[in-house]
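Problem: given the chain below (288 residues), write out its structure.
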Amino acid sequence: MKSQFYLMQSPLINTRLVATDLDGTFLKNDKTISSKNLEALHLLGNKNIVRVAATGRNMKKVKDVLAPEIPFDYIVYSSGAGIFDWQKQENIYSCNLATHSVQKLLKYFIGERVNFHAFFPVPENHQHWYFRGDQPCGEFERYFSYNQAFAFELDINNLPDTEMCQFLVIIPENEERFAKLKTDVEAVCPEIRVIRASSPITKGYIWAEVFHHSVSKGNGIKHICEMLDIGFHQTLGIGNDYNDFDLLEFTKHSFLTENAPVEIRHLFPAAPSNEDDAFAHAVQPLFL
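Solution.
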């Protein structure tokens, strides 16, 4: 069935930009890049097609998995809070939470006694403050253990007076609880949005990520398209999770990998799993 799908999609001759999520999509489970995916990147470059990675990773974590010679053109990182020119190795766009929004959110989360992380403004958002709430959370502690070199305990008597990139609230996987959290938080601070992501660390947890309302992978790709005079109808995107929806709803030709959560796989055309060269398969029609 997949071969028939790809055959039908082969006339994508006007595509000028390809955007891919990293974890669970372009990268294999061990965070390496398959030879076929790397070859596909080079072939896209030979056809002068712009290559974009759109990821929830901050820039430090992007550089943990992408060497400088990996031939992307741009990185939309931290879910769209920043854009990085990969060829020039410089930041070209930032969208942080305003200080007044940060103050509202800090007071709300502290008052609710939830576990959360609050991240420095882009592009230094690999650094963050953390707050332990009343309910112990193993996933919160696992995230902290991986990132403690850049973590600072929040002093509730001396709150930081600054912009921030985002907040991260980790909760057990429960759709009703997430929906309530999203509604409550967005009511406290209308200038923000809450994005749902599946935990990349442990199954069974939801990451509720709080950003400026303009931040999304889709808006990051849109910014690049406007900068390069590329129409949305000339774009292709591929992802694997809830936080890729904004990307896939913007790109004209969009794909979800087989390893996406079962409940969302029907929303976009299918590509193979990230372990089976999903990216290379999705862009193959561009070389016909």
